[in-house]
Specification:
This protein is mostly helical and 80 residues long. 74% of the residues lie in helices and 0% in strands. The radius of gyration is 20 Å and the shape is flat. The model has no long low-confidence stretch (mean pLDDT 77).
């Protein structure tokens, strides 16, 4: 029962916080000096890749036609 003491609780929290700090440092893209449009495009590209991986692996189904239309409208707005 020693790990669930007050000290164990704070140690567990600090360990998770450090792990998440390192994870965020290596996985979050740098946005300093970039416009909002460029940052949005980077995140949209990541979502598109994740969606195509999910569809290819069978985790998610193919996008519905109206979803594709909304995505193309969004891309047109970003490029304009």
């Amino acid at each position: 029962m020693g790990i669930f003491s007050l000290h164990g609780t704070f140690f567990s929290y600090s360990a998770v916080a450090v792990i998440m700090l390192v994870h965020s440092f290596f996985t979050m893209p740098e946005t300093k000096g970039k416009s909002l449009v460029k940052v949005q495009k980077e995140f949209d590209d990541v979502v598109a890749v994740a969606t195509s991986i999910a569809v290819a692996s069978g985790v998610a189904g193919e996008p519905e036609p109206e979803d594709e239309r909304m995505l193309s409208d969004k891309e047109d707005a970003v490029t304009a």
